[in-house]
Amino acid sequence: MSVFYDSLLTLIYPQACQICQKSVERQADGFVCADCWEETPIFNGNETLCHKCGAFLLDKPSHFETFCRRCDDDFYDSAKAAGTYEDALLTSILNLKHKPFVPKTLGDLLLQTFLDSDFQNSDLIIPVPLSLKRFAERGFNQAELLADNLARQINLTVDKTSLKRRIHTEKSRRGMDRKSRMESVKNAFEVVSPRLIEGKKVLLIDDVFTSGATVSNCAKALKKAGAETVYVLTAARAV
C-alpha cells in the first residue's frame, strides 16, 4: 500500500530533493531523496566516539572506552546521536524547525540509536524546552515532536512540563566558542516539578548536539532536582 501511495504521490505531487534536486520517491524520506540519505554519515559502530558526549574521534572502532575530555565537566551522564549534522540529517532538522513533521526515516534513525544505546532503563522522556518567546514564534517545539515520535515506539511517558527554560537566549552565532555558548545558557533552565524528577533516569531529547552547552545545563537543573541519571539522545551531532 505504501509503495502504491508513494508512486501516486510522486506522480501527482512531485518533490525535488533539497540537496541534489532529484525526485523524492518515498514520503518516509521527507525532503531528501533515498540516495542522499544513503550518503549521510550515520553512526553504526564502525567509528570511535567519545564514550560520554558522543563526539566523533576516529573512523575505526575502538575496543575500549575512549573520552575526548572536553566534556568532563558536563552534567549529563552520556550522550548519543544518530549521525553527524550534515546532508540529509541537516536538511531534515532545518525543515523540522519550520514544519512540524518528523519523516519516518528520521524517526527510525533516532529509534535505532536508542535501541543500540544503554539508555533502555530510562524512566521518562523530557524534550529540551524552548523559551516562551521562541515557542510563540515557531508555534511548536521540534524536540517535543521527536520525543513524542520516539515515545510512541518505546512506550515511555513524555514529560513536557517539569523542565522549563526560564531565560530566553538568543540563537547561538556561528563562531561562538564553547565557553561563550556555556555562558549564554547558564542558569537558563529550571525544574518546576521536582517530585516528578527525583530518583528518575531521564532521557533528554533534542534535535542537534552542538557544543553540549544546552543539554549540559538542562542536565544540571535535572540533577539539582534529584534526577539519578540524565541521558541525552539527539538526531544529529555537530562536527
Task: Describe the protein.
The protein has 239 residues and is of the alpha/beta class. The chain has a single domain, classed as Rossmann fold, CATH 3.40.50. Helix content is 33%, strand content 18%. The protein has eight helices and nine strands. The chain has helices at residues 2-12, 34-39, 87-96, 104-115, 132-138, 142-154, 178-184, 213-224; strands at residues 48-49, 56-58, 78-84, 124-127, 157-158, 163-165, 189-191, 201-209, 229-237. The chain has a five-stranded parallel β-sheet with strand order 3-9-8-4-5. A two-stranded antiparallel sheet has the order 1-2. A two-stranded antiparallel ribbon has the order 6-7. The chain starts with a helix and ends with a strand.
List the helices and strands and how they pair.
Layout: H1 2-12, H2 34-39, E1 48-49, E2 56-58, E3 78-84, H3 87-96, H4 104-115, E4 124-127, H5 132-138, H6 142-154, E5 157-158, E6 163-165, H7 178-184, E7 189-191, E8 201-209, H8 213-224, E9 229-237
Parallel strand pairs: 3-9, 4-5, 4-8, 8-9
Antiparallel strand pairs: 1-2, 6-7
